[in-house]
Amino acid sequence: MGEEGVLVLREFDPQKDCLGVEEVERRCEVGPSGKMSLFTDLLGDPICRVRHSPAFLMLVAEIGAEKEIVGLIRGCIKTVTCGKKLSRNGKNGNDPSKPLPVYTKLAYILGLRVSPSHRRMGIGMKLVCRIEEWFRENGAEYSYMATDSDNHASVKLFTDRCGYEKFRTPSILVQPVFAHRVRIAKRVNIISLTPSEAETLYRRRFSTTEFFPRDIDSVLNNKLNLGSYLAVPSGTYSAKSWPGMDGFLSEPPESWAVLSVWNSKEVFMLEVRGASRVKRGLAKTSRVVDRAFPWLRIPSVPEVFRPFGLHFLYGLGGDGPDAVKMMKGLCGFAHNLAKERGCGVVATEVSGREPLRSGIPHWERLSCEEDLWCMKRLGEDYSDGSVGDWTKSAPGQSIFVDPREF
What we know:
By secondary structure, the chain is of the alpha+beta class. The protein has helices spanning 18-28, 123-137, 152-161, 195-206, 216-220, 244-250, 277-292, 323-340, and strands at residues 7-11, 37-41, 55-63, 68-86, 99-114, 142-148, 165-168, 171-176, 188-193, 225-233, 256-263, 269-273, 310-319, 345-350, 371-377. A seven-stranded mixed sheet has the order 1-3-4-5-6-15-7, sandwiched between helices.
């Protein structure tokens, strides 16, 4: 093969590669003819979706004497919960009856792109193999990726050629931000938590949830985190009677729920293209009527046919017979926060078995019922420990979706 056909894989250089990467992204985002498609604007920062992780890498594939960029891939590594175990004899002061998290080093692949003019040349496979080398060099035990279950080319590459197994099928739930505020039930009282309080709650109540990040404190203290909010029955606490997180955990109310809000609007923007004039007109009419008569609470369609931002809800959880109602109140609060900050949608991702799912308002047309996560064990020389091979484990009721990777 001559120099004009030589393929080189190397680390992304922000000083000279941005235009080439943007061109590849543009070519790969050509939607189906006559159908609506979702496009992403990374706001000039190709590594924006991984840069907040503890460790990350972006690779580009360039070809020929002109060094044309024809492919790219991003990856990051973090430590997460893969299972749980019981403490032995209360060692280190732990309650022997309370499960403890089992952690593993997990890598995540996202943003694999190959220019349409250079597909079926093995470039995607080479990019995956190269970034997996970096994962292993940095001690990652597992690697996973997420894709739409209908993306047959991606599923085939990872499961047939790269050794990944279908692992989890969470749902992406999307709610439009209306022109009116959502009314929150009077029986729900919402308390804003400090990052420290939120960390205490998450570590004590959710640290054994699958994919829980061990560096949850870094997430909660990140500038993109807009806050964590706790919903309790009205009359439970007032601003003066809030006992603090230790007091809350020692004697929680019968029902409660919690979530945190991540400002994805500062990371990327979205845009729906390919909509007919009729659909655009109906959407605009719904907004006009909603603004003119907000008391009607018409479920208007936001302006999604221009670039719009979203807030991502994460860390969703709760307990008690009215936890679903508490979660619905929190989602209403999050909707109103997104409205104030000019977002087009609010989104979250939860397990298909999530007990609080019915309390999360969403539109089916905007949501993805089955987001496919595929996982691979990167080496056989790891200790099976208390969990065994994570890729063979049964799913739990909930998962903790890290907002840094959405």
